[in-house]
Amino acid sequence: MDHLLVLLLLSSGLQAEGKHNSTESVRLVGGDSRCAGSLELKHQGDWKQVSDTHWNLKKAAVACKELDCGSAVSVGWREESSDRSVWKIKYDCVQSGSALRECARSDSSSTIVNLNCSESVRLVNGTSLCSGRLEVKTNQSPQRWSSVCEADFDQQDAEVVCRELGCGAPSVLQGVHYGEVEVPMWTKELQCGGHESALLDCRSSGSDINVTCSPGKVVGLTCSEPVRLVGGDSRCAGIVELKHLDWRPVINYDITPETAAATCKELDCGSAVSVDGKEESSYRDMWRVSSDCVQSGTVLRDCVTPWHFHIALNLTCSDLFQPNISVSSSMDGDSEAQQQRFQVFRGSTFNISCSIQPQYPGGSFQLTFTSSNSAHNYTQPAVNHSAHFLFPAAEPVHHGKYSCVYHVSVLSHNFSSESHLLSLAVSDLLLPPNISLDGDSEAQQQGFRVFRGSTFNISCFIQPQYPGGSFQLTFTSSNSAHNYTMPAVNHSAHFLFPAAEPAHQGIYSCVYHVSVLSHNFSSESHLLSLTIIDPTPFIIRAVVLPLTLLLVNAALYLYCKVLTRLLFGPLTEMKHAVC
């Protein structure tokens, strides 16, 4: 059934990401559009064709990007009648992010590169050329790439996009955030039925409307990249065939362990066991995998080049499924998935489970843990194709990445398969309480001082999170330790000491205890240091010093009075005072 598909043009204009200012130095000629044809490059003032028999879609994607076209759809080469002056592109230079013209060197060849880029659709920032955020360039906005609102996109639309890009069927369709605020956009409504060969072949309403993509999510799409093994004893053994526009065998030339491992991984068949070649009766069209292109996380389709050969790659994988890893906690709702990241509360019991689809009996699971400063392995036998690793109390040392590795022996061969990584964060359920001192005290750099015999009060309080609970005031000194407990009233408690004594000198802290969902939790404040001092020296200073000043002033007065009388006599005392 037809429905509306809304294409969103950000008002600021999304230009080609990482685009080099090089539309005048790269072009495709002789094709059906500006995004298809023979690749030509202008370098050092000369336009020349580009030659290379090892171009793959990864290399082609660089050219498509510089041309401000969409995704790379196909790459090939043709033979001219004679050699000519051409440009060859250094692949390691392109990988570093340089523009094509910066990676060109002059050569002579008769082999010319042909490229086909999509004109109006591309997937960006994905793990492969068949995954990423969907962007579209419409005829009404030829200089802008627009994003597609998730709310107006479904499986039928995804099938059209994957078909246009030369990828397999849609496998993952989800929304991705482009920002926290709603961005006003001009849109063009398209009515897609799902059978079209290109997205812009959809019928158009012919009118622009002004809307926003709420709640700020645009389409993220992953298309499948079909690989299969044929003619073997199981689904994980046989001749490797890859579909890129059409199904072809992969040649066995220059196959590295990384390439074999990547193939088994794409097939969900564990690890590679053996690699050899099977000779065909005649030369035929095949795919060649560029070994320097295959890296961790790279899919084979991005790294193939069309080739004419007669020996196909015969691969045997361990036939193990990928195990699953999951986490659960003793508290309902205390583990939260955050994009492959889970959170458990400190002190709670949590369990990490490893499981795998039934294939072989027995085996074992190894739970691997890595953090910034440590690594551990835990092993348990597989019981009913699963194992459970229990952690009685979550602590900060449990913060890190976990994975499950399944090990099994089949026909005297040992095989293993690893799950995806699970990132675990441990956080505090309770905020730390505060501790303070009231009364006749004096704050010092090393703590508080209280006069002996005076009244003082230590208060414990915490920000409101849960009702009830209690406070425990802990006291430690060089020769004793005590605990005092009071219920929390309005999230606080006050511990009164009527008369400070030397026995009260030491270190205090507040510990808040509360029960949440039948589980007990606690949180401790910082430490408070208290010193008891004798008030006598302060009393002496307060009394003796003023009295001394008074006596000195009186003595000076009498001295001046006597001296004046001796010098001038009693009649002139008032007139000739010396002091």
UniProtKB/TrEMBL annotation:
Cellular compartments annotated: Secreted
SMART domains the UniProt entry points to: IG, SR
Family matches, as Gene3D superfamilies: Immunoglobulins (2.60.40.10), SRCR-like domain (3.10.250.10)
Cysteines engaged in disulfide bonds, as pairs: 93-103, 149-213, 162-223, 192-202, 293-303
SRCR domain mapped to chain residues: 26-126, 121-224, 227-330
Tagged with keyword Manganese: no
Single GO molecular function: serine-type endopeptidase activity
Any Gene Ontology CC annotation: plasma membrane
Signal sequence residues: 1-16
Keywords: Disulfide bond, Glycoprotein, Membrane, Repeat, Secreted, Signal, Transmembrane, Transmembrane helix
SUPFAM superfamilies the UniProt entry points to: Immunoglobulin, SRCR-like
InterPro entries registered for this protein in UniProt: Ig-like_dom_sf, Ig-like_fold, Ig_sub, SRCR, SRCR-like_dom_sf
Protein name in UniProt: SRCR domain-containing protein
